[in-house]
Amino acid sequence: MRTEQAIMDLVSEVANQDKHIRAVALYGSRTSPNALKDVSQDFDVMY
């Protein structure tokens, strides 16, 4: 299983390699300071 940092690095790498991507947004429970972290949380990403 990848670490949170590894996922964020991968998302950033994909965005940087595609000249058509202008922005990246992370949303959902991972962006909420009140959400409890657990290993089953997914990454909601929008390019």
Question: Describe it for me?
Answer:
This protein is of the alpha+beta class and 47 residues long. Helices cover 30% and strands 13% of the residues. It has one helix and two strands; from the N terminus they run αββ. Strands 1-2 form a two-stranded antiparallel ribbon. The two termini are 23 Å apart.
Radius of gyration: 12 Å
In whole angstroms, the N-to-C terminal distance is 23 Å
Q: Give the overall silhouette.
A: flat
Helix content: 25-40%
- Would you list the SSEs in sequence order as H and E? HEE
Kindly estimate the percentage of residues that lie in beta strands according to DSSP.
5-15%
Strand neighbour order, sheet with most strands = 1-2
Overall pLDDT metric:
93
**Low-confidence residue ranges:** none
Report the biggest beta sheet as strand number plus sense, adding barrel if it closes: 2 strands, antiparallel
How many DSSP helices?
1
Strand count = 2
Helix-and-strand structural type: alpha+beta
How would the blueprint of this fold be written?
Elements: H1 4-17, E1 25-27, E2 44-46
Antiparallel strand pairs: 1-2
Quick description:
30% of the residues lie in helices and 13% in strands. With 47 residues, the protein is an alpha+beta fold.
